[in-house]
Amino acid sequence: MRTTASRVGLLSGPYALATIGMIAIVGVAAFQNLAMTTIMPVISHDLDGETLYALAFAAPLAAGVPGMVLAGNWSDRAGGRVVAWVSAALFAVGTAVVMLAPTMEVFLAGRLIEGFGAGAIDVVLYVLVARIFPADLHGPVFAGFAAAWVVPALIGPALAGIVTDLWNWHWVFAGALVIAVGAFTLLVPTLGRLHAPPVAVRPPWQRVRIGWSVAAAASVLLLNVAPDLPPWGMVAAVLVGLVGTWFALRPLLPAGTFRAAAGLPSVVLLRGLVAASFFGSEAYVPFLLQAEHDLSASAAGLALTVAALSWAASSWAHGRLGEQRLTARRTFGAGLALVLVSLLTALAVATLDLSWWVLVAGWFVGGAGMGAIYPRASMLTLRFSGEGDDGFASSALTIADAAGTVVGLAVTGLLFTATGGADGAVSFPLVFAAMVCFALLAVAAVRRLGPVPAPTTAGSSPRGADAG
After folding, report:
1. Cα angle vertex 359, ends 355, 361, to 5°?
2. What is the reported pTM?
3. Which of 1, 68, 344, 464 could form a disulfide with 119 if both were Cys (CB 3.0 to 4.6 A apart)?
4. Could you tell me which of 332, 176, 181, 159 has the C-alpha nearest to residue 260?
5. Residue 219 to residue 409: CA distance in whole angstroms
6. How far apart, in whole angstroms, are the C-alpha atoms of residue 328 and residue 341?
7. What is the rounded CA–CA span in Å between residue 425 and residue 323?
8. In this structure, are residues 346 and 432 in contact, taking their beta carbons and an 8 Å threshold?
């Protein structure tokens, strides 16, 4: 049974190693993400794969969807230890394939394997938080996850750019692989605490959900390969991909997600829409700075650095303020306002040819908004779920993250390619304008949140609610 949070913190005896291990894992993911976004323009040019630019980001996220569903179901059945080992091995193998890729096709294959493992690891981390930490420490844990981006944000983009400029991009992934192995080693002792539940209460294998997750991954990948097809093929791929994504995601998410039903469904939908708007845009921020402002890969990564820093600072402030001073509605409202400012700033820079510093400043503001939204959405996900279905709720949230991002990338990829790519006069403006629309949909989802349960101690049912 979990202990209460009174007089204990994240680095107290029973939580110290778990905290350090999980934050190290998140730090590896942060480095990989920031490095990839910084050097992807160079990779796409080197491997002659500019038309597959968005797919390089979407592929691991799409593959992560079945990884998340399988990991959620498997964790509820087996506790999570074996899930962590298998997913870590897949992530390592995928990273090795990416590191050695001689062609864009091999690079994408590695990203798919890597993404499946990363998606499963994400769910394991949420399960660790739900089953090991008391409810009062959930906020600080998620703030710690955001803080784990600080060091990678400070050195990741610049380091990836410098390594690429001096040697080549292959060495960036070699370094990421070494760091990943070290980080997982720190987590190993904690995994033994994820015991399997008694046989009588283990949920069955959810084969139908797993099948739908594979269909969802295929559908969103179809959306992202559409720009590389002839006109009629592109139209067909978009229509089939959109319908397939909608049908396949419905069984994977809480009932009522697509109509923003109160409670967990609206939280999950909000996360997906915010992920689509911010990350669908962020993939093109370094691209814009390199293509239109002639910045090097390392200099263009500055936008990612400042956003990650403001994200971490905002998440830390969120954890310090507490729920009484900053309700869910206020948190989401303020966060979305900041994200909209960043997207509108990017749109202005792309349209009016403003200084690149304006875009960097705007992305700093957007990072602060994401730093407020993400930890609160994670807290509410665990709050709205019980101990028996925290695996499902955690996988639903991470699926919304991944699916939202992939759909955002598909939309931006279609618009960018259809209007001429980096050489098109309206390509970058259309990318950011479309993502503003996604952010506005997220604003509407917040209005459907409903009452929020108050924090509870382990083993008790939610009682009471704040005003949201």
Report:
1. 105
2. 0.72
3. 68
4. 332
5. 13
6. 20
7. 46
8. yes
